[in-house]
Design goal:
globular, 16 helices, Rossmann fold, alpha/beta, 6-stranded parallel β-sheet, binds ligand SAJ
Length: 424
Amino acid sequence: MKFETLCVIGMGYIGLPTASVFAGKGIHVTGMDTNGAIIEGLRAGKPHIFEPGLGELLLEALRSGHLEISSEVVPADAFIIAVPTPFYDDKRADMRAVTAASESIVPHLRRGNLVILESTSPPRTTVDLVLPILEKSGLKAGQDFLLAYSPERVLPGRILQELVDNPRVIGGIDAASAEAGRDLYRAFVQGDIILTDATTAEMVKLMENTSRDINIAIANEFSRLAQTFDVDIWEAIGIANLHPRVDILRPGVGVGGHCISVDPWFLVEAAPEIARLVRMARLVNDGQPVFVAEHIQAVAGGVEGKTIAFLGLAFKPNVDDVRESPAVELVHHLQAAGARVYAYEPFKAQAGIPGVNQVAHLEEALAEADLVVLGVGHDRFKALDPLVVREMTPAALVYDGVNAWEKSAWEAAGFEFFGLARKL
Ligand code: SAJ
């Protein structure tokens, strides 16, 4: 099948790069979003998210005329739904955006169209939620239009590269839908394209992120055990990973972002009696910010009334995304324990996070600090020279939550140094 026009619904972390890459391949793409500020910024060539290479790609796509940004869904040969699927307070999937996006396609759906859902979703969403909505058009799935699920699997920070290079899974409601999906994504995907059914593709995506969550949970649990036995977890993991069949991930201040900390709950919701390990891993990872906060209080002799320079608010290194960030959780716990926290996030100087006192410069965070806490291992924090920091702060103590700093260098600069599961 040949696709000349495409409408991508949702200009977020996935929709925007995907739309831009398709446009770069000469397909006429309409990128649709409901947020006026985002539309305005994108039309001016300014992405609202930080992702290496995205700004240039967007500008080129707009300049070439292959990408248009719109507040409305428009008729097209194919539609891609790339809207967020967060969860409610009780961890049930919030499918309102997927529902609304599907409904917005209905008036424009034509015979022969292909619709792809990319949003991470609970098993059976494509066939049980999206399909019946699209059929309100009077057209029949499989007969009049094609429908598939194709999960995004790209790593924030490497999105443009992984979009092209990663293998792509396409699960059709029937073979023709999967094959049409392959024809569409072939425009830019250089990795293998694997065809399957829609529900399998949904499961694949959830299994990938859940297995990563469980692997990080065991690393975090090991960090707690190591601390109990006064073992340096980093040394222990380094040695264990020399084993040819062991690959323990990195413990840290917790697991965040809009994928790994969310998606496993979709399996728990769908089958709570079965997904017990999945649930337990989520609870371990969600408990990590509290564990780290308590450790900081223990080594600092309490934080009540103390001033903390907190470095990093993003959910992981070298990205600007502060959604579901364990570093932010950690700030809240330290504040609840009575600390005055000045948080500095170089990738988003003003994230506007409720209850977080964010400063725009490192100097401001450090100026009156009693202790310095590293919450995210951004490269620019790793590169900090302890001797330079020494000149910028009266702080006596440094706490590294992510094993980014060399203990001896900070001690040589006159700081008392502590870290997560590092030997005292
Ligand atoms: N983390 C650790 N220790 C580690 C690795 C990660 O604590 O050893 C933490 C990070 O700091 C972060 C969280 O886990 O808070 C998640 O980070 P991540 O880099 O593991 O994953 P994401 O959320 O950026 O992207 C994941 C990827 N999935 C897998 O690697 C299986 C990506 O390929 C998916 O496309 C993405 O989720 C998604 O959108 O679903």
